[in-house]
Amino acid sequence: MSRELRLRIISGIVMAVIILAATWYGGMMFRLMAGLLALLIYYEWSTITKLSETNPTGYAWGWFSVAVMSGNTIFGEPSLDLPLLSGFTLTAALFPVLRGRNWWLVSGIVYAGLSGISLAAIRGDEQTGLAAMLFVFSVVWATDILAYFVGRAIGGPKLAPAISPGKTWSGAIGGTVSGVFAGGAVAAGYHGRISFVIVGLALLLSVFSQIGDLFESFIKRRFQVKDSSHLIPGHGGFMDRVDGLVFACFTVFLIAVVHAAITGDVPGSGGGILPGF
Q1: Where are the domains of the chain?
Q2: If you count DSSP H runs as helices and E runs as strands, how many of each does the chain have, helices first?
Q3: Angle at 202 between CA 196 and CA 204, to 5 degrees
Q4: Could you report the per-residue pLDDT of 24-49, keeping only the tens digit for each?
Q5: Distance CA 143, CA 137 (A)
Q6: DSSP state of 166
Q7: How big is the chain by its Cα radius of gyration, in Å?
Q8: Which residue windows are transmembrane per the record (predicted)?
Q9: d(CA 114, CA 203)
Q10: pTM for the full model?
């Protein structure tokens, strides 16, 4: 076994233990993890897109915005999440509108801020939030792992060769099928049954997790970088590891926002915002 592979395995195990422990305990521990992740994502996003060079004032505004949102995620009031995200995003939009800057700052604030907000909202403080978070993890991880192995084993037509030459349609389909089965297993373990809502949701999250993976590949290819950073030994950066997860969480959170618009419930107010949980 090579030194790089050993390093990759060890750091992967350490990350898994930290994530699952924080998810199990929930509360402040999980919110702290979600808030720190948002900050790390903004750091990597701004580094990839060279915001400090192309838009130094906006770069500083992005740090302030994500820091405030992360602070609210950890210590604050969940009902302020969307107003803060909307306010900081609209303010950041003044840079490209009034000063002719690009939109990487705006998208970075949304990507990083919503990452922490959606994770914390799904987990919440209740037992249903724990089951919902484990459901999302199982779908995303099963999709990612099986997509790799099925794609390697079967091969075939490329999924998006201009963005990520290694991904195939066979891998994408295999990953989606395994994600649905894994999510169904978690739901069955929690509820004792599997509903059409759960199957449909697992399918949707699996697809969007793969879209998230392709999205990050597009960003890295656009700026000609291999890894989002070198913060995780053997793995690259945090964005490299959570790209599919955050897109799946975005999907859940946006579904919850639509549900809230109908029912009046505030996403993240207690946990269990995932439909079917």
Answers
A1: 27-123, 126-276
A2: 11, 2
A3: 100
A4: 999 999 999 999 999 999 999 999 99
A5: 10
A6: E
A7: 19
A8: 7-24, 82-98, 103-122, 128-150, 171-190, 196-215, 244-262
A9: 22
A10: 0.92
